[in-house]
Amino acid sequence: MMEWIQQIWPAALLAVGLASLFALILLIASIKLHVQVDSKVEQVHKALPGIDCGACGFAGCASYAKAVVANPELIGRCTPGGADVSAAIGQILNLQISSGGAPQRPIVHCRARREDKLFYAEYSGIESCTSANAQPDVQACHFGCLGFGDCVRACKFDALHIVDGLSTVDYHRCTGCGACAKACPRNLIRMVPFTHENMMTVACSSRENGKTTRSFCQVGCIGCGICSKQSELFTVSDNLATLDYAAYTPSEATQRAMDKCPTGVIVYRGKTAPPPRQPKSTASASAT
């Protein structure tokens, strides 16, 4: 037994010595290479939602925290956090933050559900809007919602769902991060300043002429210009009516524009938005 101990103790001693040496080297390296983290960056990071959605334009909350401390002009970019997070960051940086504008929320500029649109072909490829959009004849309307849910998968808040083939926003869950707008290959989902709880919108993106639009969609904009005659907030360009969201205020004129719209493409979007009305018949539209 003593012989065995005498044989292994030098190796054991060497192992202990090497372990101590490596530990000392690691300790020195950690001290030399230690990067001092700005306490304000840590505080800002804690104030952020921590969801790393990228709405601010940075890779995640940690990157944004570092950037906003270095450049306070970036305050206000955290859409999910909204005014409360901006105020918290301002307090950390000892800055007076003025109240921001209206919160940005997405609007799907299409209202055609599956029964409203005519498909040219049965798509059997990858269930992705991006993939389907690469095919020329997936559906008759080249401007409408494809309904394969790229926006749904991009949303981290379960605020979008495909309902009867149409992307639909749940505004009670939506934080306005903008991920859905970035995911839509047809640019149908656009971020809009919600100056009111419910916003009026022209829920269409088609640039086809009225006759062509009617041939493949019952609820598309036909560029008739009736809305623009009722309210100056509506303009028609390239066969498509649009609404000036920044200047929008509910009025008798905007309501008349909605009521007189022959295809019912003018609708409300928001937390308590009423359901869209059915389009007028072709005959009544012609009479109008």
Question: What is the structure about, briefly put?
Answer:
With 288 residues, this protein is an alpha+beta fold. The chain is built from eleven helices and eight strands. It folds into two domains: 39-92, 3-methyladenine DNA Glycosylase II, Chain A, domain 3 (Orthogonal Bundle), CATH 1.10.15; 104-279, 2-Layer Sandwich (Alpha-Beta Plaits), CATH 3.30.70.
In the CATH hierarchy, what is the architecture of the largest domain at level 2? 2-Layer Sandwich
The number of E-state strands comes to 8
Number of domains: 2
In CATH terms, what is the fold-level topology of the largest domain?
Alpha-Beta Plaits
Characterize the largest beta sheet: strand count, sense, and whether it forms a barrel.
Answer: 2 strands, antiparallel
Give the number of helices: 11
Low-confidence stretches at least 5 residues in length (pLDDT < 50)?
A: 282-288
- Order of strands across the main sheet: 1-4
Which percent range describes the beta-strand content? 5-15%
Mass-distribution shape = elongated
Q: In sequence order, what are the helices and strands, one letter per element?
A: HHHHEHHEEHEEHHEEHEH
Structural class: alpha+beta
Helical residue percent band = 25-40%
Give the radius of gyration: 29 Å
Outline the structure in words:
- The protein is α+β, with helices and mostly antiparallel strands.
- The protein has two domains: 39-92, 3-methyladenine DNA Glycosylase II, Chain A, domain 3, CATH 1.10.15; 104-279, Alpha-Beta Plaits.
- Helix content is 36%, strand content 12%.
- The protein contains eleven helices and eight strands.
- It has helices at residues 2-33, 39-47, 61-70, 82-92, 129-133, 150-154, 179-183, 210-216, 226-230, 252-260, 282-287, and strands at residues 104-108, 160-163, 166-169, 189-193, 198-202, 234-237, 240-243, 266-270.
- The protein has a two-stranded antiparallel sheet. Strands 2-3 form a two-stranded antiparallel sheet. The protein has a two-stranded antiparallel ribbon with strand order 5-8.
- Strand 6 and strand 7 (240-243) form a beta hairpin.
- Helix 2 (39-47) crosses helix 3 (61-70) and helix 2 packs antiparallel against helix 4 (82-92).
- It starts with a helix and ends with a helix.
- The model is unreliable at 282-288 (pLDDT under 50).
